[in-house]
Amino acid sequence: SDIIPDDDGTFDLGSASKEWQDIFIDGTAKIDTLTVDENATIAGTLGVTGVLTGTSLDISGDIDIDGTTNLDIVDIDGAVDMATTLTLGGNADFNGDLDVDGTTNLDVVDIDGAVDFASTTAHAGNASFADNAKAIFGAGDDFEIYHSGTASIIREASAGNLTLAG
Questions:
Q1: CA–CA separation, 28 vs 85, rounded Å?
Q2: Over the range 32-52, which residues count as b (16 or more CB within 10 Å of their CB) and which as e?
Q3: In sequence order, what are the beta bridge partners of 147?
Q4: Distance (Å, whole) CA 142 – CA 136
Q5: CB 156 within 8 A of CB 142
Q6: Coil vs helix vs strand at 70
Q7: CA-based Rg of the chain, rounded to a whole angstrom?
Q8: pLDDT tens string for the chain (166 positions)?
């Protein structure tokens, strides 16, 4: 038989002490507010129009959001396809490779580790170094070019020769 609420919306389905175990809906569920006690797991497509907030959301299907998404942690194990711009208000930490096909415009680049230029890199601007910051070449840091603040220095740092060719 049908379960029909009163016209003033005063009846609840279940209570704080008596809950439904599983609800199976074949059709459309129209819910004004959905609160999930722990983590929400969605197997299929989640379409969100409006605001999606939470601390954890596990999705094994597609997600389509037209609005704002506020999640404390987003863990994505597969590919991410973005049709528009991704804007980050904080830091992005990549624990693997970052592969960019196209142009990358960076305001400031701070590299704490080694830089590997596997092929020729051409750029239209200047490469600026602070005083005593060295451009180092060779597998054993054999050749250096730098400015000490008072002198410009080209240094052969190995037992080899420094050759200028024209």
A1: 32
A2: eeeeeeeeeeeeeeeeeeeeb
A3: 152
A4: 7
A5: yes
A6: strand
A7: 29
A8: 677 777 777 777 778 788 888 888 888 887 777 776 666 666 667 777 777 776 666 666 667 676 677 766 666 666 677 777 777 777 777 788 888 888 888 888 777 777 766 666 666 777 788 999 998 888 888 899 999 999 999 999 888 888 889 8
What the block records as the tokens of 162 is 């420094």
Instruction: Name every residue whose Cβ is closer than 8 Å to that of residue 20 and which is 6 or more positions away in sequence.
Output: 13, 14
User: What is the distance in angstroms between the CA of the first residue and the CA of the last residue of the chain?
Assistant: 95
> What token pair was written down for 14?
């279940």
Which residues are within 8 A (CB) of 148 and not within 5 positions of it... i.e. 6 or more apart? 131, 132
| Non-local CB neighbours of 61 within 8 Å, separated by 6+ positions | 42, 43, 44, 45, 46
Instruction: Give Cβ neighbours of residue 129 (< 8 Å, ≥ 6 apart).
Output: 135, 146, 147
Whether 62 contacts 75, CB under 8 Å: no
- Closest by CA to 54, choosing from 66, 40, 33, is 40
